[in-house]
Amino acid sequence: QVQLVESGGGSVRTGESLTLSCGASGQTWNVMLMRWFRQSPGREREFVAQIPYRGSETRYVDSVKGRFTIYKDSAKKTFYLQMNNLQPEDTAIYYCNMLERQTTIEWWGQGTQVNVSA
Length: 118
Known about the structure:
By secondary structure, the protein is mainly β. It contains no helices and eleven strands. It has strands at residues 2-7, 10-13, 18-26, 31-39, 46-52, 59-60, 68-73, 78-83, 92-100, 106-108, 112-117.
């Protein structure tokens, strides 16, 4: 099993920055991708960014490209989402996620609220 613990959410104003972190514990040897999703009220959960557990090729949803950066600290089994120039439409609960290879099991963090006011 894999346990994910998130931190770093909060309330900011338009244009400000936040960094979310997601620390993993347990059996991560089979993890393929580390990802961030978000969900705002009345909307489906949306993919935000991903980075391979082994490797460095990142991918982002178009709406955050150039503003958000996903990165990792493999030694700490922790990955991050640096969010710059936040906009009100970024307001959501942010969830971290790990996807296992072969089994395709997904592990989720508890979610952290990000509020961006105008």
